[in-house]
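Dear colleague,

Following up on yesterday's call, I've attached the two folding results inline so they're easy to grep. Please treat them as preliminary; we haven't cross-checked anything against experimental data yet. The first protein's sequence and C-alpha cells come first.
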Amino acid sequence: AVFDDLAAHFPLQRDPHRSGGPARYWRVGDTATRLGLISPLTANFCDTCNRVRLTTEGVLYTCLGHDDHVDLKTILRQDGVDGLDAALDAALDVWDEIDMADVRAASLRLADLFIAQVEARCPDLALASPRDGGVRGSQVSFRHPDGYAIMQALIARGVIGDFRAPDILRFGLTPLYIGEDDIVAAVDIMADVMDTRAWDAAE
C-alpha cells in the first residue's frame, strides 16, 4: 500500500543498488533520489537476510520474524565478558552447517500448512500475505477488523505474533525453532479464540 501510494505520485524505477540488507530500492524519476523499502509482508528476503536485532534493553534477536532471543544484558551482568562471548557463540551456533536453501524450503512448507489450517478453521481471518510462496517471506499475515484484540488474546495463550495497524495479525514461521506439530497446536488455539470470540472477554 505504501509503494502504491508513492507510485501514484512519483515515477518510480527499479534500482539495482544493494546495501547488504533486506531493503529493495527504487529511483525517483530522473532524480538522484533513491528510495529503499523493506516489505516483509509482500516480498521475500529471508534467503539474503543478514540481520540480527539488539534492543535497547540488551536483548538479541537472531531472526527479525521470530520471538526467540538471548538476554545479553543479564548475561553480561552475571557472567561478565566471558559469559557474553559464550552466549553470542551459542546464539549463532544454530546457523552452523545449515543450508539456507533447506531452511527456506522448510519455511515455505510450514507457511503453506499454516495458511491451509487457518483458512479451513478460522474463516473470519483473511489472508493478507501473498499466497505464492515465491514472493512471500517467512511471515504469514491475516486481516481482521478486531486484529489487535485477537492478537492480545492469542499472546495470552502462548501464540506469539504481532499486530500491524490497521488490521494485520502477523506470524513468524522459523523452521529452526518450530515444526508442523507447533503449527497445528497454534491453529488449535487460534480456532478456539475465533470460535469463542475470546478477545471480547476481559483478560
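Below is the second protein, in the same order (sequence, then structure):
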Amino acid sequence: SEYKNISTDKLVSFKAQGIDKEYIAKVRQMKGKDNKDDDGDDIVSFKAMNITPEFVNSFKAVGPTNIPHDQLVAYKAVGVTPEYVKSWYDMGFKNIDAEEFVGMKSQNVTPEYMKSFTSLGYKDVKPEDLVAFRALGITPEYIKSFEAAGYKINDLDNITGLKATGITPEFIKSFESVGFKNIDLDEIVAVKAVGVTPEYIK
C-alpha cells in the first residue's frame, strides 16, 4: 500500500491537502533514489509547494539530475528556475550545488549583478562572494567611490570588511588630515573595528 509507514497525523494532513495514493506514488517517483517509505513530510511539502514532475524534469533538461528533494522545495520557495540555473552554467559556473543556488537566489544574486563587478576588472569574483555582497548591500558604486578617492581595491575580500565595518572613503581621508597617508585597507578595517578615530590620535 502507498500508505504503509505513514503516521495517522500525516494521514490527516494528506486528507486536508487532497493528497491521494496517486500523488504519493508520483512524489516517490520524482524522488527516485532518495525515496524512503517514511517520507510523509516530503509528500506534504511537495504538495504545499506544488512541485510536479514537470518542475523536476525542467531542471534535468538544463543539467542537474540529482537535486535533493528538500532543495526542490527550497527552489520553489525562493524562485530558482531552470533559466536561472542555465544562466550560471552558461557563464561557466557548472559546480554550483543546489544549496548554493538557493542562497544565491534568496539574495537576488544574478549574472547581471556579477557582470557589474567583472566589468570593473574583478575577473575572479565568485557567486558565493556575491551572496555576501548582496547581504551587505555592496554595489559597484560603493567600490567606485573608493577608487574615485584614490584607493584601489585589489582584493574583493577587502570590500566585505570595509562595508561590514561601515568604512567610507571619507572615513579614510579623515586620517590623512592627522598625518596618516596611504593607509592599507586591511589596516583601516582593524582601526575601525577597535574604534580608533582621528580625534583619538590628535
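For the second protein, one point worth flagging: The mean pLDDT is 85.

Best wishes,
A.L.
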